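User: RNF41 ligase, Ceuthmochares aereus:
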Amino acid sequence: MGYDIERFVGYVNEGLLCSICRGVLEDPLQAPCEHAFCSACIHGWLVHHSNCPEDRQMVDVSSLRPLYRYMKNDLNRLQLHCKNRESGCQMVCSLESIDRHEKECEYSLIPCFNIGCTVQVERRNLDGHLAVCEYRSHECPNGCGYFILSAEDIQHNCVAELKTELELLRTEMICRVEEAKHEMESRLDSQRRHMVQKESVLLNQIEELKSQMSRLMSDVCSLMAAERQHRQELEQAELEKREL
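Assistant: Predicted structure for RNF41 ligase:
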């Protein structure tokens, strides 16, 4: 269904009216014959018909198209009153922004937040209603901390509620301890694996150093043997020189 034309300020072009409901187009679609309709109206019409309600030309859902851009712009610029005008809202805004306003309008009826309450109040009066709503929650006057949500809850057993709360706390504590335990075990396992890996790397490095030391010692021994051989050769050469 389209918007009630009585809500609009000033003249509304005939081309912006739905050919079925005669209201101002809402979520408009256009047939190939260029007649425009509200989306809900034309879809409902095509359930039982296969032609345009204006000129009887053949129409199916697949042939429907969005409204021409210039017509869409003209539609969005139309000014209209808020639907809560009779309740006191004096807002007049463009069709393009009316939905946004009405979602936040202080005169819109909204349901009470309290469970079990079926009252609907204007948004601006909600706080006042919540303060006196018979379904509002409040703490038990005996000090057990239980929140009373309904008239039946007034007769609740404080001891039982405290026991239940204690059980819940104990269960939660056990769960948290188990979680902390698992987390610590996981961290220890991770650190243990890291230490094992590090130890393996260090052992490999030590073995490599041992191998290098062994090669160095072998090289030193070879150099010392070569030096002794060279010294002996020098001594032999000196003797031969003296003999000559």
